[in-house]
Amino acid sequence: QQQVKQSPQSLIVQKGGISIINCAYENTAFDYFPWYQQFPGKGPALLIAIRPDVSEKKEGRFTISFNKSAKQFSLHIMDSQPGDSATYFCAASTPYDKVIFGPGTSLSVIP
Amino acid sequence: DVKVTQSSRYLVKRTGEKVFLECVQDMDHENMFWYRQDPGLGLRLIYFSYDVKMKEKGDIPEGYSVSREKKERFSLILESASTNQTSMYLCASSLGLGTTNEKLFFGSGTQLSVL
């Protein structure tokens, strides 16, 4: 019940296309859903996060869509750029427990 | 900017050696964490600390211990390194507002190889 599932494991998108990464969870007590971005040789960095009281959050080209009833959330990267090539981790947590990370998605944006 | 510094980028050790991984943060954060990153498994929490001299086990504490003698420093110790501990180790910190729903700041990681 503590697991966060993430798909796909890897993704190749053409420059200018839309990248979509999906995550699912079981624990209905989760109330914070961050996405972390990791470039090669670097640690993960917080990209965007959402709480379940909203269905969508947008920051620039990055959007989180959240479906509470389906217990799913996804990251959309619009107008994907080669500089977006990185590993993306979805995660979830309750207010007083550790953050649970998904297994990660390796995104390659090709020119 | 918050800086989380891990002492080594690459480390090669032999089976049975005692290994110390050091992590320092410069933003007076209360919480510090040690994660292990393996392909296909994501980030798994080894140990965390909410205060000086305080530690709690994460999901995979076996074979590891930690030390937090000062607020800014959190050390991960492999008492007797084994080949299955070959991995990327990531240290992180967070402000510590009484909840875990807050931004994590990660170091660049230490790639440990145990031969």
Features:
heterodimer, A: 111 residues, mainly beta, six-stranded mixed β-sheet, B: mainly beta, seven-stranded mixed β-sheet, four-stranded antiparallel β-sheet, 0% helix
Please outline the helices and strands.
The complex is a heterodimer of chains A (111) and B (115).
Chain A: E1 4-7, E2 10-14, E3 19-25, E4 33-38, E5 45-50, E6 56-59, E7 62-67, E8 72-77, E9 86-92, E10 100-101, E11 105-110
Parallel strand pairs in A: 2-11
Antiparallel strand pairs in A: 1-3, 3-8, 4-5, 4-9, 6-7, 7-8, 9-10, 9-11
Chain B: E1 4-6, E2 10-13, E3 19-25, E4 31-38, E5 42-49, E6 56-57, E7 64-70, E8 73-78, E9 87-94, E10 105-106, E11 110-114
Parallel strand pairs in B: 2-11
Antiparallel strand pairs in B: 1-3, 3-8, 4-5, 4-9, 5-6, 7-8, 9-10, 9-11
Structure description:
The complex is a heterodimer of chains A (111) and B (115). Chain A has strands at 4-7, 10-14, 19-25, 33-38, 45-50, 56-59, 62-67, 72-77, 86-92, 100-101, 105-110. Chain A has 111 residues and is mostly beta strands. In chain A, strand 6 (56-59) and strand 7 form a beta hairpin. Chain B is mainly beta. The N and C termini of chain B lie far apart (36 Å). Helices cover 0% and strands 52% of the residues of chain B. The radius of gyration of chain B is 13 Å and the shape is globular. In chain B, strands 2, 4, 5, 6, 9, 10 and 11 form a seven-stranded mixed beta sheet that branches. The A-B interface holds A 6, 9, 31-32, 34, 36, 41-46, 49, 89, 93-99, 101-104 and B 4, 40-45, 48, 58-59, 90, 92, 99-101, 103-104, 106-109.
* Radius of gyration of chain A, whole Å: 13 Å
SSE order of chain A, one letter for each helix or strand = EEEEEEEEEEE
Task: Work out the radius of gyration of chain B.
Answer: 13 Å
Number of helices of chain B: 0
Shape of chain A: globular
Given the structure, what is the number of helices of chain A? 0
Fraction in beta strands of chain A? over 45%
Largest interface: A-B, 25 and 21 residues
Describe the sheet with the most strands of chain B.
7 strands, mixed
Alpha-beta content class of chain A = mainly beta
- The average pLDDT of chain B is 92
Distance between the termini of chain A: 40 Å
Approximate helicity band of chain B: under 10%
Structural class of chain B: mainly beta
How many β strands of chain B by DSSP? 11
Report on the biggest sheet of chain A.
6 strands, mixed
